[in-house]
């Protein structure tokens, strides 16, 4: 009878301790498992508190980017620039206004913005002939930056090639398939008195010809063999 009593008491104590631990876990979830372990393992040899990472996992991009839909150049004379890109380069002009003109190049769009006229946000209410409802973010240098950089300077570089001496010199490149196509464009530019800046032969086999547009932006016609993907 005595041995049975001494057997039941430790078992009862173990049950009580188990119930206390369960109560702590259920009634105090904010305490956290790591803190609970740390509290009850104090003084216990060779045991360390648990540590859990709370680092937030970043979500992946929602969809794969397909291609560059638009790129833009800031120009000073819309009529002159439209004639250059339409009549000299042969691009399809689908929009022509004093403030904005657009050209379709396959699935890509080249936009020409009149310098200093597009820096402010533009709001639309969807009424009448407006293109939609919302706001188009302003972009490009404002009038103060245009003035500070002297971008309204109408003088031309020495040699009379026709583009301003002061320019943003934005860069763009048009793709053709073969190296021979670039050579044909070089001859064509010379015939049309387009200012050719330089040419480049690439280690992968491609060739580039760099030229200036009427605003001094640096254009390029380039064949395959410049990048691993082109």
Automatic annotation (TrEMBL):
Q: For the VOC domain, which residue ranges apply?
A: 64-224
State the PROSITE patterns in the record: VOC
Q: In Gene Ontology terms, what is one molecular function of this protein?
A: dioxygenase activity
Q: Which InterPro entries match?
A: Glyas_Bleomycin-R_OHBP_Dase (IPR029068), Glyas_Fos-R_dOase_dom (IPR004360), GlyoxalaseI/FosfomycinResist (IPR050383), VOC_core (IPR037523)
Provide the species name.
Tothia fuscella
- TM segment ranges: 6-26
**SUPFAM superfamilies referenced in this protein's UniProt entry, alphabetically:** Glyoxalase/Bleomycin resistance protein/Dihydroxybiphenyl dioxygenase (SSF54593)
The protein's name is Glyoxalase/Bleomycin resistance protein/Dihydroxybiphenyl dioxygenase
| Keywords attached to this entry | Dioxygenase, Membrane, Oxidoreductase, Transmembrane, Transmembrane helix
The yes or no answer to whether the keyword Membrane is present is yes
């Amino acid at each position: 009878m005595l041995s049975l009593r001494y057997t039941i008491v430790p078992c009862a104590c173990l049950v009580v301790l188990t119930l206390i631990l369960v109560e702590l876990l259920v009634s105090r979830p904010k305490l956290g498992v790591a803190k609970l372990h740390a509290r009850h393992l104090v003084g216990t040899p060779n045991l360390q508190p648990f540590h859990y990472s709370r680092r937030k996992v970043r979500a992946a991009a929602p969809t794969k980017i397909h291609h560059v839909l638009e790129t833009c150049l800031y120009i000073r004379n819309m009529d002159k620039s439209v004639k250059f890109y339409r009549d000299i380069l042969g691009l399809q002009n689908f929009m022509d206004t004093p403030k904005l003109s657009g050209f379709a190049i396959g699935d890509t769009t080249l936009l020409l913005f009149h310098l200093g006229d597009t820096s402010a946000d533009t709001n639309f209410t969807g009424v009448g002939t407006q293109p939609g409802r919302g706001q188009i973010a302003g972009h490009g240098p404002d009038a103060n930056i245009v003035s500070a950089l002297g971008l309204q300077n109408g003088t031309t570089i020495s040699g009379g090639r026709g583009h301003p001496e002061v320019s943003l010199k934005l860069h763009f490149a048009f793709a053709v398939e073969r190296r021979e196509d670039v050579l044909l464009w070089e001859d064509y530019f010379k015939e049309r008195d387009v200012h050719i800046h330089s040419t480049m032969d690439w280690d992968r086999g491609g060739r580039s010809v760099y030229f200036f547009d009427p605003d001094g932006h640096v254009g390029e016609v380039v064949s395959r063999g410049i990048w691993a993907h082109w």
